[in-house]
Amino acid sequence: MTTTQTNRDLEQIDHKTCRHICDAVGERLQQSMRPEPSLSSPLQQLMDELRRREDDRR
């Protein structure tokens, strides 16, 4: 697929339709993603340590 062909394909979807599609995808994602459960204290401490070590490497 060439850039010109891609641009023509994009032009066929108007802004309003594109917005509706994006909103629908966003709603589906919100419905399917569940909040992460709280970590136990020891596990949270290990995760914090892992983040600190990763930051130190950078």
UniProtKB/TrEMBL annotation:
User: What top-level branch of life does the organism fall under?
Assistant: Bacteria
Q: Where is the composition biased (Polar residues)?
A: 29-44
- Residues annotated as region Disordered? 29-58
Q: Where is the composition biased (Basic and acidic residues)?
A: 48-58
UniProt name for this protein:
Anti-sigma factor NepR domain-containing protein
Identify the species of origin. Answer: Bradyrhizobium jicamae
Q: Which classification does the entry list for the species?
A: Bacteria, Pseudomonadati, Pseudomonadota, Alphaproteobacteria, Hyphomicrobiales
